[in-house]
Amino acid sequence: MKTIGLTGGMGSGKSYIGAIFKLMKIPIYDSDFHAKRLMIESEEVRNQIISLLGSEAYNADQTLNREFVASQIFNDNKKLTQINEIVHPAVRKDFSEFAAAHTDSSYVINEAALFVENGTYQDFDYLITVVAPMQTRLRRLKLRDKKPEKEILKRITQQSSDRDKILKSHFVIYNDELQDLFQQITAIHQAVGK
């Protein structure tokens, strides 16, 4: 069975593309969702985060204090690196278990924004990058996240450029509202599903 990384910058449409693959009965692992889940459910991960950021990282009900954590890691590159060093190995292990549970499929997809940044793109048989124009991404992110444009742009600049991602990719999906997404996805499915 093949493993495929699905990546792209914030607001590029990764999750939407993943949902289309899911409709095609391809198992999709959402790394962001599972990272958040593991930050709550994994005692080991939770304890390491508390050691790094303090008990304020979690609310009284043991849920992640997302605003506090974001304020800590997005203003301090060292802390961002450290939290990634805690969470990413747990997510990689969890994905391996997910893939092992789906051997009946010809491939599984792992969706995340940071495969190029953290070097894990090399762990996959194929890498797909989703790209979209910056104005489209900003519009989507403002609607989704309800954050000021300045904050959104700051987070976007912490990710690799589309160019860097494309150079490491086997396939690129242009999600610019002009290209036919289904045609692009079907071509990739036929190429890797053999």
From TrEMBL:
One of its GO terms (biological process) is coenzyme A biosynthetic process. It is an enzyme of class 2 (transferase). It catalyses: 3'-dephospho-CoA + ATP = ADP + CoA + H(+). Pathway: Cofactor biosynthesis; coenzyme A biosynthesis; CoA from (R)-pantothenate: step 5/5. One of its GO terms (molecular function) is dephospho-CoA kinase activity. Its EC number is 2.7.1.24. It is found in: Cytoplasm. One of its GO terms (cellular component) is cytoplasm. SUPFAM superfamilies: P-loop containing nucleoside triphosphate hydrolases (SSF52540). ATP binds at residues 11-16. It comes from the Bacteria. Keywords: ATP-binding, Coenzyme A biosynthesis, Cytoplasm, Kinase, Nucleotide-binding, Transferase. Belongs to the CoaE family. Catalyzes the phosphorylation of the 3'-hydroxyl group of dephosphocoenzyme A to form coenzyme A. This is Dephospho-CoA kinase. The gene is coaE.
